Amino acid sequence: MTPDRIVLSGTEIDLFTLSRIAAGTVEVAVSDQAMARVAAGRATFLNALSGGQAIYGSTTGVGALKDVEQHGTEMLEYARALPFAHQIAVGEVVAPDATRLMIALRLNSALTGQVGVSADFVRFLQDMLRHDLLPVLNRRGSAGAADLGQMGQLATVMAGAGMVRLRGVVMPAAEALTAVGMTPHPMPPRDGLAASASNSFGLAKAVLNIMRAARNVRLEMALATLGAQAMGLDRDVWRAAGMNGLRQEKSVASWLLDETAGADWPQVNRVHDPLSGRMITQIVGASANALLEAGRAVRAETAHVDDNPVIMDDRVVTSGGSLLLSLSMRLASVQLALAHLARNAFNRCLLMVNGQLEGLPVNLVPPGVVATGYGPVMKRALEQPVRVTDAAGPVSILNLPVAAGLEDEAAYISLSAGRIREQLDAFDWLQAVEAMLAAQAIDLSRVIPAPGASEMLYTHVRRHVPTLTRDLPQSAALTNVRDGFIHPEFLSNLFATAPFSPFDDILGIAPVTETDRNGPKRPLKENADEIS
Questions:
Q1: Same domain, 286 and 190
Q2: Any idea what the CATH number is for the domain that residue 110 is in?
Q3: Residues 133 and 228 in one domain
């Protein structure tokens, strides 16, 4: 593997590598040993087919039509038509990063040799990535054990129909394939179903939203530090967590103390701080732990074959592997973690503006100034934890049988990932408000922001929002603060300034070109001379 090439071989892929694939900044190659497994799996499938075995989706229909058999030319025509039957997604167009990652994940699981697809199927997916030829996907179309709507759109493009982005330009698939010298894939038996029925789309969404949530957690740690300094929170609470907290609480406490070492800290006279100020390490620590578990779970799924049927030894057998329930449960934990984080962030915002802390007047209006201050902004802030909490409910427990009741279990990975996206959209705005309030509170407390992450946040806010001395329109200011916080360069600089290892490395957000900390299971070259 080189910095510009990723070699897939059907093994686990770490999140950092997945992010590079999603960004389209690396070439995706496949190992020859993996291709040998694909050939062996295909041979097993063809032997079973020629031997007269009834094979779901090849000699039979799918779903409620599983007992309807077809043979000969009828079977071939059915396999070719499967992509079109499943091309049902509608709504908002999916971003290219999720689409690239979906293709790569489908490619990687096929390289296990357990799917039974043809070598041409694998090469076609690889060529799509090489040419940045991406199907135009729509967001709505997945509500079962496989992402049929979006995978159907991929399969349709492989068959030469539908719409694509070719290096960013939208055009008909047939036109794009001709432009890059590719011909439509004929979709022989097994390939049509394998292209249409997997969880690759939901898995791609889960990867990207877990990584985005990890960035929000890290930003929240920095915001909590800035706000804690502004309010003069008691840092002995963090020292106590470092002594008797759980493992991740200790890690967060250590980070907070390191970031505020030697800082200009307000002198206050309190017996103790409100709970939202004293429990930062517990809430952030538990949330970080939920993200780590989700990151490990989604990484494990990158090498998991969720197809039905599958190749086992020299047989074709049915499988229930499409239920990614372990991942779904971890995603539900992330949803809950984000709700707790948002509540804590809002409560600390409230502490800064309610006039109950020394040196911080109501609505953070400076003494002697006649103004409304940040009261209206707090109403904007309140909306955000409500939205985050509203999207925190798990979806994998919903019972929505389809296919005449035969398909009666589902993990709803795509819907869970979509809920997390909704939460993060709201959380972004809450963090912009929190930063604005913390910067004003810093000024009122007459302290200098702690060097490092706090100083970076304060400087960014003041670039867009002046110290409040009179009422001003805030919509554009909040938008600018939020846009800066979600910009990759800002976040990369923030994480480089105040790293949090191994969290950053495991979740693929460490600001490095390459990292070996997470490398043992990264897809590796199986033979230095056998890469294609």
A1: no
A2: 1.10.275.10
A3: no
Residue 532: predicted pLDDT: 60
- Alpha carbon distance 318, 306 (integer Å): 11
Q: Same domain for 484 and 423?
A: yes
Cis status, amide bond into 502, omega within 30 of 0:
yes
Q: If we measure between CA atoms, which residue out of 126, 182, 224 comes closest to residue 431?
A: 224
- What is d(CA 468, CA 280) in angstroms, rounded to the nearest whole number? 27
Residues in the chain: 532
Domain assignment present for residue 516? The answer is: no
β-pairing, 310-312 with 315-317?
Answer: antiparallel
310-312 and 163-166 strand pairing: unpaired
> What Rg value do the Cα atoms of the chain yield, rounded?
26
Pairing of strands 133-135, 315-317: unpaired
Residue ranges making up the domain that contains 402:
215-235+272-498
Tokens found for residue 352: 């800064």
Provide the 10 A C-beta neighbour count for residue 74.
11
Pick from 254, 273, 450: which is nearest to 348 by CA? 273
- Two tokens, residue 145: 């054990």
Residue 517 confidence (pLDDT): 40
Q: What is the CATH number of the domain that holds 426?
A: 1.20.200.10
Read off φ and ψ for residue 257, nearest 5 degrees: -70, -40
Task: Report d(CA 281, CA 255) in Å as an integer.
Answer: 10
pLDDT of residue 97: 98
How many structural domains are present in the chain?
Answer: 2
Which residue from 346, 492, 335, 334 is spatially nearest to 431, judged by alpha carbons?
Answer: 346
CA distances from 455 to 171, 435, 439 (A): 47, 11, 10
pTM of the model: 0.94
Dump strand ranges (E) for 357-408.
none
**CA 50 to CA 44: how far, in whole Å?**
10
Residue 208 lies in a domain: no
CB 219 within 8 A of CB 253: no
- Residues of the chain short of pLDDT 70, as ranges, are 1-3, 61, 63-64, 67, 142-146, 400-407, 512-532
27/59 same-domain check: yes
Residues 128 and 230 placed together within one structural domain of the fold: no
Q: Are strands 90-93 and 133-135 parallel, antiparallel or unpaired?
A: unpaired
* DSSP letters spanning 435-461: HHHHHHHHHHHT-PPPTTHHHHHHHHH
d(C-alpha 426, C-alpha 39), whole Å? 47
Same domain, 159 and 227: no
Do 427 and 333 lie in one domain? The reply is: yes
pLDDT of residue 518: 40
